[in-house]
Amino acid sequence: GATIAYLSAETGALTNTFEASNIDTDLEEDTAGVIGTKKPSVENVGTTDCLVRMRVNISPEDADEKIKLEGLDLINWSKDSAAGTGNSGWYYYQNVLEAGKDSKTTNLFEHVVIKDQSYIWDDESDEDDQRVWKDFLAVYPDFSITLYQESCPTSMTINGVTVSAVNQDGTFNPENAARIWAAYDAQTVKE
Prior knowledge:
Elements: E1 16-17, E2 25-30, E3 39-44, E4 50-59, E5 67-70, E6 77-79, E7 90-93, E8 111-114, H1 127-139, E9 144-153, E10 155-158, E11 161-164, H2 174-186
Antiparallel strand pairs: 1-10, 2-3, 4-7, 4-9, 5-8, 6-7, 10-11
């Protein structure tokens, strides 16, 4: 006689889950009343630690080639560091933004300057600054810089495994943070 065995394995859908939390962040912009000064940061006003990212949109699109974000903090912020984001324009804060009073990121940048202009920022508006910007705005009357920020939890369950942006020793884990953002972006969150 012969024995025939038929084996079959089937797995259910894998889901990524965030735990319920109170994440509440505010975008802050310190302009100090000085032409070209723009110091964006994000404050955690919620009760839960979170990950933060910020995007800078410059309009009209061709004006983007004419300006520069001066004082860009690429130590505490990383451009497009989340897995699979390509060139999304996102800057990812490279630390956990803890909940609590006065918990905010470093400034993403300090000033908006017009390329190919030789003027020095001294945190005071003067006639040269005003002239340069007046000339620029004559060419780009609809010029604007829009900042957009998002935040998400520091840990989540991805395919049945808890992934945390904080290592057991309390240090930040950028690879896991990138995995969390990728899952967040994929919008595969189900309850």
